Amino acid sequence: LDDWSVELLEKSINRSLKNLKTDCVDLIQLHTCGRDLLEAGDVIRVLERARQAGKTRYIGYSGDRDDAEFAAQLGVFDTLQTSISVFDQQNVELALPVAREKNMGVIA
User: Fold this and answer.
1) Cα 13 vs. chain centroid, distance in angstroms?
2) Cβ distance 64 to 83 under 8 Å?
3) If exposure means fewest CB atoms within 10 Å of the residue's CB, which of 30, 31, 83, 92 is most exposed?
4) Which of 74, 79, 78, 2 is nearest to 38 (CA)?
5) Confidence band (pLDDT; 50, 70, 90) for 2?
6) pLDDT on residue 1
7) Alpha-carbon span 44 to 29, nearest angstrom
8) Residue 58's beta-bridge partner residues?
């Protein structure tokens, strides 16, 4: 299995819920998966199914730069977690305005 297979993601979610001794968490995020995986859509569908099954209230994406902007533009995520730096303003200039437009929560 590769790190982003549907089967591995589903097992990871279920294992996390079991380890936390709960049926539902507030947020499940994809952390730093690339645009190619977002475009393919399988990783997103895993999170959407988890939300539909009541395993999470919200789904989000965690990443930077072009990937973060693209994830925000998709309009499927409830949150965007991204780096904020005085040295690199791409996330501030590109990803955050899109997240605001899509009414996403932002974790900086």
Assistant:
1) 13
2) yes
3) 31
4) 74
5) low
6) 40
7) 10
8) 27
